[in-house]
């Protein structure tokens, strides 16, 4: 009798556990991935693909346009003329550099304005991604130009001071200036620059906010509040970030995310952003950008002397320490930037993938993560070839992200809070497109 009771008790304990293990083993992550991808197709997918693939060409056009403007400034001697004007105003070298920098940045901004207007305003409206009127867009453009003139001029004063003082080793010390400037910008941007474009306020109170703060506290983010900002006045994209540096760290999310996403999607996104902080990606990126800057400056140094030897007298450029030679540096850096696109994208994409898996472990919302990837497919090609993803993507593709989430779900299925149903592919069916907006907007 006792033996029979022991057997029944063993069956009662082991049988549910064996069912859970079997169900987890039966979950087909690949089939679940394909099921999610199939929820977006037809015109919506074609429109998203066209928008993102157009961006491949913009990498080329951006570089060629910048190079063309640089050549115009050199061969018309406009750059040398602006240097002469600055030298006629003051004898202080640093102030000459600042005046020249402000002049040439303003002039190049005006020269590139038609292209910027086409790409930044008309193209965004063509694909239904912008909410700005022409006047609002022009206002933000003017604010951005003013910030760019001031910040870039300060940077160039520092860079040319280093070039004058360090001689042939300027490329290495110049990378140090880049590093300091990145750290400075990351510190002041959340506090002083971001509020010029958007209104920031504490996120609405509720359980979701407390869950975000709980994930943040558990992972060492030094912030005691979550703020939301009104990005919907500019565009339809969902976004969030943990920004700042050296005491200015802030957890932010935009109103598009709050208004268009479910709580599980919001948690998935915020856990990803918290992952960037917890994994020290800001420090990794500063180091990576510093190394890339050193390499770019080294190649620029070599290219500058080669071009200067052939055209320097024609351009009116004295040597590399002459600010009038800035368009030469811009030309060479533009070329380097185009050629280094796969490398720079891969560096960022690797960090993004690390934050993805961190976010899955922190929020434990694989389906929320997957449906968020579908929302991002409004303006990112969902299913590229491996070659496309390697060269052109600075984030993992939608397919990669959904596949990662489903693999995670397969391994943690028995631990998730929702019940296991009879469908071996998806424990919870993905939301219909109507429930989270038109991906073709």
Keywords for this structure?
mainly alpha; four-stranded mixed sheet
Quick structural summary:
With 441 residues, the chain is mostly helical. It is built from 17 helices and four strands.
Question: How far is the N terminus from the C terminus?
Answer: 69 Å
How much helical structure, as a percent, in the residues? over 70%
Specify the number of helices: 17
Number of strands: 4
Give the helices and strands as they follow along the chain: HHHHHHHHEHEEEHHHHHHHH
Going across the major beta sheet, what is the strand order?
Answer: 1-2-4-3
Largest sheet: number of strands, sense, barrel closure: 4 strands, mixed
Helix and strand composition category: mainly alpha
How much of the sequence lies in strands comes to under 5%
What is the radius of gyration computed over CA atoms, rounded to a whole number of angstroms?
26 Å
The average pLDDT value, as a whole number, equals 87
Low-confidence spans:
1-24, 419-441
User: Quick one: overall form?
Assistant: elongated
């Amino acid at each position: 009798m006792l033996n029979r009771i022991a057997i029944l008790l063993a069956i009662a304990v082991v049988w549910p556990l064996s069912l859970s293990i079997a169900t987890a083993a039966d979950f087909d992550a690949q089939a679940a991935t394909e099921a999610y991808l199939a929820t977006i197709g037809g015109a919506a997918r074609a429109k998203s693909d066209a928008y993102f693939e157009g961006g491949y060409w913009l990498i080329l056009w951006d570089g060629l346009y910048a190079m063309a403007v640089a050549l115009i400034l050199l061969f018309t001697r406009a750059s040398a003329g602006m240097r002469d004007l600055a030298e006629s105003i003051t004898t202080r070298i640093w102030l000459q550099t600042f005046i020249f920098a402000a002049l040439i940045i303003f002039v190049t901004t005006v020269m590139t304005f038609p292209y910027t207007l086409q790409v930044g305003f008309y193209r965004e409206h063509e694909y239904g991604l912008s909410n700005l009127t022409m006047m609002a867009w022009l206002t933000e453009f003017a604010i951005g130009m003013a910030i760019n003139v001031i910040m870039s001029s300060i940077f160039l004063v520092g860079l040319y001071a280093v070039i004058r003082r360090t001689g042939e080793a300027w490329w290495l010390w110049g990378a140090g200036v880049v590093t300091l400037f990145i750290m400075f910008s990351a510190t002041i941007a959340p506090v002083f620059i971001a509020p010029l474009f958007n209104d920031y306020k504490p996120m609405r109170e509720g359980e979701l906010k407390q869950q975000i703060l709980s994930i943040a506290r558990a992972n060492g983010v030094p912030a005691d509040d979550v703020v939301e900002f009104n990005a919907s006045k500019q565009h339809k994209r969902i976004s969030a970030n943990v920004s700042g540096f050296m005491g200015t760290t802030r957890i932010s999310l935009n109103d598009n995310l709050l208004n268009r996403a479910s709580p599980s999607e919001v948690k998935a996104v915020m856990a990803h952003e918290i992952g960037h902080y917890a994994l020290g990606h800001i420090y990794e990126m500063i180091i990576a950008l510093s190394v890339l800057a050193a390499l770019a400056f080294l190649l620029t140094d070599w290219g500058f002397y080669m071009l200067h030897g052939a055209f320097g007298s024609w351009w009116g450029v004295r040597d590399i320490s002459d600010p009038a030679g800035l368009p030469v540096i811009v030309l060479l850096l533009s070329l380097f930037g185009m050629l280094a696109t796969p490398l720079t994208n891969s560096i960022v994409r690797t960090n993004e993938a690390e934050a993805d898996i961190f976010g899955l472990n922190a929020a434990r919302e694989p389906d929320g993560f997957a449906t968020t990837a579908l929302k991002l497919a409004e303006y990112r090609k969902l299913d590229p070839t491996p070659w496309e993803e390697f060269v052109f993507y600075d984030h993992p593709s939608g397919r990669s992200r959904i596949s990662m989430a489903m693999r995670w779900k397969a391994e943690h299925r028995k631990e998730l809070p929702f019940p296991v149903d009879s469908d071996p592919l998806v424990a919870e069916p993905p939301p219909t497109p109507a429930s989270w907006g038109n991906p073709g907007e």
